[in-house]
Specification:
The complex is a heterodimer of chains A (about 525) and B (about 270).
Chain A lengths: L1 E7 L6 H12 L4 E8 L2 H9 L5 H4 L6 E7 L2 H9 L1 H7 L3 H4 L8 H7 L5 E4 L3 H13 L3 E4 L6 H13 L4 E2 L5 E4 L2 E4 L6 E8 L2 H13 L4 E6 L12 H12 L5 E6 L4 H14 L3 E5 L7 E3 L2 E3 L3 H12 L14 H10 L7 E6 L2 H15 L2 E3 L8 E5 L17 H10 L5 E9 L8 H18 L5 E7 L8 H10 L3 E3 L2 H13 L1 H8 L6
Parallel strand pairs in A: 4-5, 5-6, 9-10, 9-11, 11-12, 12-14, 15-17, 15-18, 16-17, 18-19, 19-20
Antiparallel strand pairs in A: 1-3, 2-3, 7-8, 13-14
Helix pairs in contact in A: 8-9, 10-13, 11-12, 14-19, 15-19, 16-17, 17-18, 19-20
Chain B lengths: L4 E8 H9 L4 E7 L3 E6 L4 E5 L9 E4 L13 E5 L2 E4 L2 E4 L4 E3 L15 H4 L12 H15 L3 H11 L9 H16 L9 H12 L2 H11 L5 H7 L4 H12 L5 H17 L1
Parallel strand pairs in B: 1-8, 1-9, 4-5
Antiparallel strand pairs in B: 1-5, 2-3, 2-6, 3-4, 6-7, 7-8
Helix pairs in contact in B: 3-4, 3-10, 4-6, 5-7, 5-10, 6-7, 8-9, 9-10
The chains are: A alpha/beta (about 525), B alpha/beta (about 270).
Chain lengths: ~525, ~270
């Protein structure tokens, strides 16, 4: 092993830059260890313990930066140490980097791109309102990806946007499509005649991908944030979005996605849709929602049904909701139940998508009874967890990016004696993990093996939100899950129904298919 | 001298008093980062400037537009004059700025239990805290707190100063977190005569200038707004959100601070 050392006197780089430097150095071929620390006495001791306190490092004082690289060859160590300055320069302020300045403010960005008309803001919530205000003042539409924005700020920002004739999408707007451009977590879908207004990111993704699967594209999809249809916000952006889609010649049909609105807001939304006059599908996920058609507006109970109803309306075809489109559902359910023992009757849903979790919870409650969940605080034998909730994402990326929390919980599922079904979602697209199915599949296999070793079966049911054009590839992701023994259904709603039927048995299957329909 | 006029929109009450009492004082730009600038006064103490939002240090001030900080370069002279901070090409008035009390002295937090909730799911801290030196240092600090033993507490603090990764080394962040909980719930051991002075003297010699500033303020009971938000939370949910925001700050600085808070919390309860 060979070592090389760089000591930079009076070096002030923020902690993120130092962490990034250490990772970059360790990732170089042949590098065994890289220490990047300030030259404090304690760090001298730390380096000595690790065998990295070189003579040069001993000369460093508390405000000096020490980089020690240990590599297989002297040349490798020297090359890595030599990369320290350029790697740090990449993270330095613009003045130190030279070349085109990277804007640090909205105003600076507008000066660089005077033709820009939209800003996507993704900063910690405490800073987000100020940045959004700056963007609006610069005449930009705003996609506010940040969450944890105060309600009062949301209302003020939306009023300001409306006064300026702009859209304020969000806060917590995870997904949007503007003139075919995907923003945030978004799947690769074609452009087309369907315009969407959505108070939900993964809900929008589910509908857009289901439409894409039927050859239907999206004109624009406007995310409005989960609170927009509350009484306090009054549907300000939902109504503004509907007005835009009503005026848009490329939008032939409108889909509204969200949770049940405040009554007065719901009335305003329906009045706006009636005034626009275009065919519309309304999917506001709640208990006791039944499919019905009033004039040009069809109300549906699930995200998949929203896409099916839209597809049918565009094709001037008749449509009826049905519980499954997958082949031989009854046979698959019976096969899964045969592997269970008498004590296995519960469902555990581990979701990356909040709205997908909510939809599943509604379906499971309707078919199986009470469901415990962090979405509602409710209690029950069955559980549905939104792993994207704050409690699971402290200092950790969202589960659509970082599988750690779901992998941990999936691994433990094999030990749960009463668990019949593990229910999952897998979300693909821009912004999502590179291989979400591959991330969780080995743990699924391990959990099923654990259950088998204890003399039990464990059914794993999932749906994949994605398209063939997504970077991860829909077919490859489905194949990876199926190879791990997962039953992959065509939609989140179908997956939830299948899970309920496996756990609940004949009474549930009878409710879904009818006693005579099972053959 | 003040070509680009702007203002401070938010600053710590302690810093405001210092500025008001030091008309004519001079400092120099100590360090320039992507989103913050530190100014060092002649007595060695620091002033941090960053963009609008919560104060990220108890010695910080938020400017109305972060872009103004682009005018500052290392070693530029900064002066205090007629209610403004002046530097070549920059003038920042603080007259209308909101004063933020960054001190934990006064009423105890409303919901002591709120802190325990987010602490149950701590994010990963810097590796240096898990080194043999780091483990020994944390154990000594925890024992000093649990037993209200000033000697062991000082030994633990001394071993943590300057230890580990980061411009504010992980050990300093951990110590600051522990001091925050002590100030919030039981300051008896650190307010014993000579304790704070001894730790401050160690900080002078054993850590970076910026980390030392955090430690000196922490010894006096002053903390950044993200730290204060965790300790002032009134519910578990609020504490969880505050902890998440703190954890997301810096490389692992926020996480290291949370670990220090948890260490002190557990030690006080032992």
């Amino acid at each position: 092993m060979a070592q090389a050392t760089v000591v930079t006197r009076g070096a002030y780089h923020d902690s993120v830059a130092l962490l990034t430097l250490a990772r970059a150095l360790r990732a170089r071929p042949g590098v065994r260890e890289a220490a990047v620390v300030m030259g404090t006495p304690a760090n001298h001791d730390l380096l000595a313990q690790a065998g990295l306190l070189t003579d040069l490092a001993r000369t460093a004082t508390a405000n000096d930066l020490i980089v020690v690289v240990e590599a297989e060859t002297a040349a490798g160590a020297e090359a890595a140490a030599g990369a320290t300055a350029p790697l740090l320069a990449e993270g330095a302020p613009r003045e130190a980097r030279g070349g085109r300045a990277r804007p640090r403010t909205i105003a600076g960005a507008v000066r660089q791109m005077p033709d820009a008309n939209l800003a996507l803001i993704s900063v910690p919530g405490a800073f987000a309102a100020a940045e959004a205000r700056a963007a609006l003042e610069a005449g930009l539409h705003v996609v506010l990806f940040s969450d944890n924005v105060a309600l009062a700020d949301e209302i003020a920002l939306k009023r300001q946007a409306l006064a300026q004739g702009l859209l304020l999408m969000g806060p917590d707007c995870g997904t949007a499509y503007v003139a075919g451009v995907p923003l945030g977590f978004a799947n690769v879908v074609p452009r087309g005649p369907v315009g969407l207004v959505a108070a939900s990111g993964t809900g929008l993704q589910q509908v857009a991908t289901q439409l894409a699967g039927r050859g239907r594209g999206v004109s624009h999809a406007i995310g409005v944030g989960g609170r927009d249809m509350s009484e306090a916000v009054g549907g300000l952006m939902t109504l503004a979005g509907l007005e835009r889609l009503g005026d848009d010649a490329g939008t032939e049909l409108i889909v509204v996605i969200g949770k049940p609105p405040a009554p007065a807001v719901g009335e305003r939304v329906r009045a706006a849709l009636a005034e626009i006059g275009k065919p519309a599908v309304v999917c506001l996920l709640g208990r006791d929602v039944t499919t019905r058609t009033d004039g040009a507006v069809t109300t549906v109970a699930t995200l998949e049904d929203a896409a099916l109803a839209a597809d049918a309306a565009l094709g001037h075809a008749a449509w009826q909701p049905r519980p499954f489109s997958a082949p031989d559902v009854a046979g698959r359910i019976a096969e899964a139940r045969r592997a269970l023992d008498a004590g296995q009757s519960t469902v555990l849903g581990l979701f990356a998508g909040g709205t997908l979790a909510h939809e599943s919870l509604l379906i499971l409650e309707a078919l199986l009874g009470p469901v415990a969940s962090n979405l509602t605080g409710g209690r029950g034998r069955h559980r549905v967890l939104d792993l994207g909730a704050d409690a699971f994402t402290i200092a950790r990326a969202h589960p659509m990016l970082d599988p750690t929390i779901r992998v941990e919980m999936t691994g433990r599922a094999g030990e749960q004696a009463d668990l019949a079904v593990l229910l999952l979602d897998v979300v693909l697209g821009h912004g999502a993990a590179a291989d979400p199915a591959g991330d969780v599949a080995p743990t699924i296999e391990a959990a099923r093996a654990t259950a088998r070793a204890a003399g039990r079966g464990l059914a794993v049911v999932a749906s994949v939100v994605g398209t063939a054009g997504d970077p991860q590839g829909l077919a490859a992701q489905v194949a990876r899950l199926e190879a791990a023994g997962v039953w992959v259904l065509p939609s989140n709603a179908q997956a939830a129904r299948a899970a309920a039927a496996i756990a609940g048995g004949e009474p549930v299957l009878d409710r879904l298919l009818g006693p005579g329909a099972r053959g | 001298m003040s070509g680009r006029r702007g203002c401070l929109v938010r600053l710590s009450a302690h810093l405001a008093r210092r500025l008001e009492w030091t008309e004519g004082a001079r400092g120099r730009v100590h360090s320039v980062f992507a989103r913050a600038v530190n100014v060092q006064w002649r007595d060695g103490r620091l002033l941090a400037l960053h963009g609008p939002g919560p104060l990220l240090a108890p010695f910080a001030a938020a400017v109305d537009d972060e872009a103004r900080l682009g005018a500052l370069r290392p070693d530029m002279i900064v002066t205090v004059e007629s209610g403004r901070l002046l530097a070549p090409g920059l003038g920042l008035s603080w007259q209308g700025a909101q004063r933020v009390d960054c001190a934990l002295a006064g009423p105890r937090p409303c919901c002591a239990g709120a802190f325990a909730a987010p602490a149950g799911a701590l994010p990963p801290h810097a590796p240096g805290l898990d080194s043999p030196l780091g483990r020994d240092a944390r154990a000594a600090l925890a024992a000093g707190i649990a037993e209200r033993d000033p000697t062991r507490l000082m030994a633990g603090a001394r071993a943590l100063l300057g230890l580990g990764e980061g411009l504010t080394p992980a050990g300093d962040d951990c110590l600051v977190g522990a001091l925050a909980v002590l100030h919030a719930f039981d300051a008896s051991v650190i307010t014993l005569p000579g304790i704070a002075a001894a730790i401050a003297a160690d900080a002078e010699a054993r850590t970076t200038t910026i980390a030392r500033e955090f430690v000196l303020h922490a010894l006096a009971g002053r903390f950044s707004e993200p730290v204060l938000a965790v300790l002032r939370a009134r519910s578990r949910d609020e504490a969880g959100r505050a902890a998440a925001r703190l954890a997301a700050s810096g490389g692992t600085s926020g996480a290291d601070t949370l670990h220090g808070m948890r260490l002190a919390w557990d030690a006080l309860a032992a």
